[in-house]
Amino acid sequence: MLRTQELTKTVNSQGQDLTILSDVSLTVNEQDTVAIVGVSGSGKSTLLSLLAGLDLPSGGEVHLAGEPLHQLDEDERAAVRAQNVGFVFQSFHLLPGLSALENVMLPIELKEQDRAKERATELLEKVGLKDRLQHYPNQLSGGEQQRVAIARAFASEPKILFADEPTGNLDTKNGNKVSDLLFDLNKQLGTTLVLVTHDDRLAERCQRIVRLEGGKVVADNAVATQTEATQAATAEQ
Amino acid sequence: MLNMALRTFRRDWKAGEVKVLLFALTIAVMAMVAIGSITDRVHRAMGEQSSEFLGADYTFESPRPIDDAWIERGRNDGLEITRSQSFATVLSSDDNFQLVSVRALDGKFPLKGTIEIAEKPFTQGVVQQAQPKAGTIWLEPRILGVLGVEVGDTIDFGSIQLTVDGVIVAAPGQASEVFNVAPKVLIHIDDVEKANIVQEGSRLEHILFIAGEPAAREPYIQWLKSQKNPTQEITGGKEGTPALKAALERAETFLRLASLISVVLAGVAIAVAAGRYSQRHFDYSAIYRCLGMQIRQVHKLYLWQLLMIGLIGSGLGLALGLGLQSLIINQFSDYLPKPMVGISLAPVITGSLSGLVVLLGFALPSFLQIAKVPPLRVLRKELLPRAMSSWVIYLLSIGVMALLMWWQSNSLLLVGILLAVAVVTYLLIRLIAWFIFKIGVWLGKRGSLPVRFGVGQLKQYPAFTISQISAFGLAFIIMLSTVLLRSELLSEWQSQLPEGAPNHFLVNVQEQEVEPLESILQESGVSTKGIYPMVRGRVVGLNDMTLEEALDENQQRVGAVRRELNLTWMADVPEANKVTQGEWWSESDVADDRAELSVGEELAQRLGLEIGDVLKFSIGGLEVEGEITNLRSIQWDSFQPNFFIIFEPGGLDGFPASYITSFHLPVEDKGVLNQILREMPTVTIIELDAIMEQVQSILDQVTMAVEFIMLFVLLAGIAVLYAVLQVSREERLLSATLLKALGARKKFIRASILAELILLGAFSGVLGVIGGEVLVNILYSQAFDIDLVLHPWYWLWVPMISVGFIGIVGWLGLRHLLNQPAHQVLREY
Ligand SMILES: Nc1ncnc2c1ncn2[C@@H]1O[C@H](COP(=O)(O)OP(=O)(O)OP(=O)(O)O)[C@@H](O)[C@H]1O
Ligand SMILES: [Mg+2]
């Protein structure tokens, strides 16, 4: 599904070349759930942006859904995103002028699929916002906004979903609710999930944890059992 | 895509995002449509009026008979054409003779304006458009006295007799002609042949008076121009009235400038609003891109937005502009040229299309930026679109601006001037930006905390600050120059025809009549500006050579050396003249045998005369010489008798002189003229009151038009200021709310906002004053022929007004919002 090879990113900051990501080689299979963790500034968001084709690497390769992102131009990468990718961001990034429903419909329409309204409504029901379809982002709480964002992320039935600190702006209670939804929907729809976080509990719900330090992968562990345990615990609650 | 564009538009509309841009565009189109069509209507109405001086929209003069087919063609095109012949002849009655200039007509006259015919000289006549019947003649009042006839009498005209049918009280004609041409008579064209009066070889001018709708008229005139030979001449309304020509041309330049300026104002407002709009949409664009929209799609989406804004804004502006112009024209019709002509389509189309073009030129660069936001902005907020190379933007905007200006004003000169000023303004703005930074640093050390915070706001977003200052500054530049130009033009026009300017001239007063004339005038309470001598003579030699030897062929053809000139002597420079070379004599000392001479500079140039040259004159068979000691410029439109050549006092002693005088005579006192004519029948009376009144009324109306347009430019300027303040309001609101959320007191917030607004106002005001002075003085020298003037009075006022306006309006826009709870405001923005 997703494969990188010796992925490197250097930026020029105040006349100095700064390597913020070096030699990251990863393979993510279909329906995998992967957490990328690390301290602040370790390069998590940078990696995510390269994986999703939001930015171009300075060296190395990224293949997403069989497409060599590092060789594509902006528009071609956008097309790959439209077909395959969903996003959830720390700061929600809903379009403030669109209602919850319209926000969720947008990616479906971009993909030129039909029944946009029905499917968007369905998804919003699933995230528990059935009554808030016509509300605008500024009428929703942070947790609610993030739930709309999750509905939007799944709306286009992406093969892979990227989430950057999806619970970072939320309190524990809302954060749990949002992460539950994220994992539930993910499971239901069989989406591949790549999640950036520094919340260990959240990371442990993934099958695999990739740890970054100073732009390098320092650990890459499968945590399948733990994840199942956590899920069981959550279910009991 | 259209579907999505519509939804985006609807949401932007609901969210108030397009409000400011739409407002700016609406104001812009409204201003362009209103100014454009008012200007156009006033301009055409003025054209109509000057046609009244000419008696037609155009005249066509030819020394040889004009081909009947040409006339036929014009009449077939739906034009009114009156054919006439014009020649000089002598009328006689008993033993009295008078040289007159005859105009023989084959149709109605005049085609534009009216002729006033009375039964008795110096009374009110009947206003009409008519033609003397065959066998009758209309004549100017002064002829009656000379010939000793009255209405109803007959006079000899060649081999036939004509009955005097009326006295011409007022007729279309050129003011400057009055002093040179013999009195006018009007007859029927058929009588010319009957009278057998035109001999082979005598000078006869064939004239067509042409009038009609522009659509039919202009092509015909163009056609005539292409057909005519060099001896034939076409004159339009404006050229026929030298006294008005300058005034009308200036008024026209002013009006054109105004409509042009409306384009600039529009552009500024739109550029600022569009910049703001696109900034607010960077985030949206990043999200769209992140969700997989391609750059092309985002471009398309926003171009649709632009188009919709353009259509709605132009539509609204068009409607408002049309409403406004008709309101103004109706409300003030009494003061505007009459009859007011209807609205024409051209300025309306130009105005609304200009709106779209301005929108494209000034908003497109910003709108194209939107799609170029890197999608990575969703993760890294600080990322901005890759800047288009700035010269592309400038070139685009300037190109569009220049094109539009040219389109609106049809004057390359004005466009050039404004572009030059734009460059100056740009440099000034750069300088000011640098100042702001310096002042920021300075205040950063000294000012109180809120002031420092306010200034910090300006420093923090230099691009936005600069665009605000440019917009405010430009608005002030434009308003200031309009106000200054208007005052200058008005005072000029007032001085052209001062209250109580002489409107009657007596010519041909004999030496022995001077004293009786003075006493008649004194008794009737008429005050004169003096009685001047006039000697008729010819120039016969130059520097001891005959003219044939001294002048080349072309120079010998100059009228002034071929006919008799009116010569005079004067102690002081005449009022409407200015010495341009050499020096006027201080006191007369004709001790040496050669008098000093002053010569009109145009004549001197044509004949190649220089200071120190000696001219020889022949006066009544005697000869006299004079040396040129100075050259004068002569204002031909001054309604004063002008002299090509003036002697120093004493220079013409001993030659037979007649005298000339002028005075102001109100209509009700015109009886005096009858008394004068009775007692000294050979005196020639030239009445300029009618023509001067007409000129005055046109000047009044032009003045009014200029006042209007100025008012309108001021309003448009204020609208622009307001629009820009609206754009920046949110920025200030947000920063104020943040301060509030951080726990700042109201007083602190108020102080910091006011500091920011005052500084903005001050810089804009200074920019306005400097730019305004530069613009006005370039305009003065290049387009209006006025000397450089500075206006220190405004140096203080403009910045004060600027600070006041920006401070107060900016503050009022924020005040009530500051009273809302911080979280509510933060949520909404
Ligand atoms: N364009 C750039 N110019 C300069 N430095 C950059 C640029 N992009 C990223 N960096 C730096 O690279 C490092 C990694 O950034 P990144 O945003 O990927 O960190 P992160 O792991 O997501 O941190 P956080 O947990 O705080 O979000 C940081 O030190 C950041 O300052
Ligand atoms: Mg990050």
UniProtKB/TrEMBL annotation, chain A:
Keywords: ATP-binding, Nucleotide-binding, Transport. Pfam families: ABC_tran. GO terms for molecular function: ATP binding. PROSITE patterns: ABC_TRANSPORTER_1 (PS00211), ABC_TRANSPORTER_2 (PS50893). It comes from the Bacteria. Residues 2-237 form the ABC transporter domain. Belongs to the ABC transporter superfamily. PANTHER family: ABC TRANSPORTER ATP-BINDING PROTEIN MG467-RELATED (PTHR42798:SF2), LIPOPROTEIN-RELEASING SYSTEM ATP-BINDING PROTEIN LOLD (PTHR42798). This is ABC transporter ATP-binding protein. It comes from Kangiella taiwanensis.
UniProtKB/TrEMBL annotation, chain B:
Residues 257-375, 708-821 form the ABC3 transporter permease C-terminal domain. Residues 22-214 form the MacB-like periplasmic core domain. InterPro entries: ABC3_permease_C, MacB_PCD, Membrane_comp_ABC_pdt. It is a multi-pass membrane protein. The chain crosses the membrane at residues 20-39, 254-274, 301-324, 344-368, 388-407, 413-440, 461-485, 708-727, 748-772, 792-814. Pfam families: FtsX, MacB_PCD. It is found in: Cell membrane. Keywords: Cell membrane, Membrane, Transmembrane, Transmembrane helix. This is ABC transporter permease.
